User: Fold this.
Amino acid sequence: MVNKVSQPIKTGLLYELEIEDDVLNSAYFNHDIAPTKTRERTWTKWHVAALWVGMAICVPTYTLGGVLTSFFGLNVKEALLTILLANIVILIPLTLNACAGTKYGIPFPVLLRSSFGILGSNLPCLIRGIVACGWFGIQTLFGGIAIHILLSHLLPGWESLEGKGEVVGFFLFLFLNIYIVIKGSESIKVLESLSAPILLAVGLGLMMWAYPQVSVTELLAEPAKRPENASFWPYFFGGLTAMVGFWATLSLNIPDFSRYARSQKDQILGQIIGLPVTMFFFASLGVVLTAASQGLVGETISDPVNLIGKIDNPIWVVIAMLFIIIATLSTNTAANVVSPTNDFQNIAPKKINHTKGVLLTGLIGFLLMSYDLVQRMGWVNTDFKLEDMYSNWLLGYSSLLGPIAGIMIVDYFIIRKRYLNLPELYKAQGLYKGVRFQGMFAFIFPVCLTLIAVNNQAFSWFYHYGWFTGSILGGITYYLLCQITSAKL
Assistant:
């Protein structure tokens, strides 16, 4: 009896895999991380655009303008233009890294096996996964607070629960996220497609509500909070790097979604349509609402959840809280659950399937926020806020992921010239077996330099421009090592 061997099948410009026993029995394969069939690639450019609208409209995006004006010394006009430019810049790695996912139907961890090896891919996967779990916990807390405020206006006496009500909201929101992602990619597509027009409509409504309370001309004319004679460029590039870093993690695992796109044209146009304008609009909304908050509620508030919660109009609060819940849900499911679910499966595909990966993501997100939840229950009294520490830590932590983006792009487009041996990506003793030294060194080298630069004033620029320096150095190092070692492809 002749053993059949798995073969890639080309349909137009896309590939799928005819799976036989050689791949099916591999310890590094399961059906959840298998290449998507061409019939499963149903996302048009509008679905991809809706995905980005759903992810970009969230509480952190709302605060970006304030972050740039308060901490990076830019005025409002400079801040908003920086946000727009940063999201145009991040489109480059997003669309490039999405190409392999669309062509071969493979998720991020499987694509990483090409440059890091099957075993080596677990290190960058786990780093990316833990970042996502941290953000999942923080976003779930935002969603839980919104649910608590919503129920406070719908159920008499709920408001008296205070922190306990926020904890209940946290778990309700957590279970809702987990349920949607367990249902699969079609559920996410439906959620994003339905939420995108709602989010845009409510965002426009909030802008119209706040507009009479603020003079946009005066707001744009406010001077920057930096020394009068200071050069604009260091502040601009620092802010640009931070804003690029906002979606740096998604620029890595975008194949998790592009594997469902109908074509390269759909994934590229969808990202161009959905990301830059949405980020610019919602960041602008945050700037306007924060400026208008003094006139609206009598104090300056930069957090939309707490701002809306102070409005003395139950109908507006209920509508706005539903908006916050939908916005946070659409962001959280796509940006912070899908990636770690696939990343955890990559470790042991035969033992961790899609459902177990989702549950593991939820558990880690809960554990990372457990101390804050204990505080809100009133069991511990302290001014320490865990989500503040995680926010600062995760932003810095995400900057360490730049080298992975550079390595992925160089590997796929320059070293392998857009060709991957699809069956071999799943075989323990195949072409991509073990740990690929070139990818691992090209990742660790710039990360070590970044860590050194954090505490070295002379090289502080390397850290401050971390995503750019890391991705460029990682890509160049990987290319040179592949040339020097004449690595077998």
In short: Residues 42-399 form a domain with the Hydantoin permease fold (CATH 1.10.4160.10). The longest strand covers residues 7-11. The chain has a mean pLDDT of 89. The first helix runs from residue 21 to 24.
